[in-house]
């Protein structure tokens, strides 16, 4: 009887393990039949999903885990809990008061531990995307393979960082790396906005023209009106925001200069854009609004209390806008058909002939011993194979973009590393450095945009298309 039960249990265990493996493979791995290779964009979408998962983990670490690891846990009998408390409070000792009833110190300690919790998850994501970028350089199809193992690797990286003390890796080294990466992303984000605005502008104008042809004169006014209304809304929001910043943040010369420069450049760039042959008011409005957002981010980091009424308070508006900007970058990277074109994927396409199969789709092992690429219906997967020629060799660029987005959300969630609460700024030098880095990136971004407007006028004999 025991042998029979043992055989039944073994059989059920084998079936359950197989079912679980199949389920995980369906969710994380190949989403097609075993004879069909994964789509060329499957790795891109799963990379974006992993980034969004990391944002959720970062917020949990920041608002749940970090604040609950208190100094008095060091006296607990459980050695693991005591070690975790030491690791997460490391570098935050200056905010730990002997008087446990000191609420101000405890709040600063919670902010410090929470920020380092974000750095733990973001550091894991940054390392993951760097590793996958290197793997994609060595093997172009690596970005769409072995995703169950990749998710497990990412979770192991996060688990490992939980036991590493804050100093110096998280609160010093990684924070500065994230600041540099965040600045680079802010400049690159201009490409995202321009791509989105030009696509929307062309789409709405085309729909308006088509409506004029199909329904008669005047039928396309609703599309043109929607475009003008959107531009007007962006300009109105920008001017109102600048007016509010003049009112609240102009107590010192530095902020006043930043605000004035942004206003002048926004008006000048709009005028230059409208005088061009391919004028796009929508693009200028979006860049002006984005410049205004960067301006607000910079002036809100000024450690001078004479011109920063938000000093010492959590910048909820900045965090919300930063996370929203992160989502725009994530969605563009994951689903925009021009995402790769913006970083030049057409320059290094991979030809299927390199596999030696005479033009057939290359054989790719994803999991187990299945041999993908042996599909009989070539017409059904022609689109994926054609797109794969362009995207496989450029998947490393995708991971670099996601690494930059990781740096950006780490800074957005932590207010660029500031530790503030109740009107107290624990590290004002961080705010001053962040202010100049952000405003410097804004100036560089605006300079690049102005150059794209002026270059065709200054050098008409050159092709800038």
UniProtKB/TrEMBL annotation:
Q: Decide whether keyword Transmembrane helix is in the record.
A: yes
Locate the region Disordered: 346-389
The family database entries (PANTHER family) matched by this protein are listed as: SERINE INCORPORATOR (PTHR10383), SERINE INCORPORATOR, ISOFORM F (PTHR10383:SF9)
The subcellular localization recorded is: Membrane
Q: Spans of biased composition, class Acidic residues?
A: 346-356, 377-386
Please give, as recorded in its UniProt entry, the membrane topology of this protein: Multi-pass membrane protein
Q: What is this protein called?
A: Serine incorporator
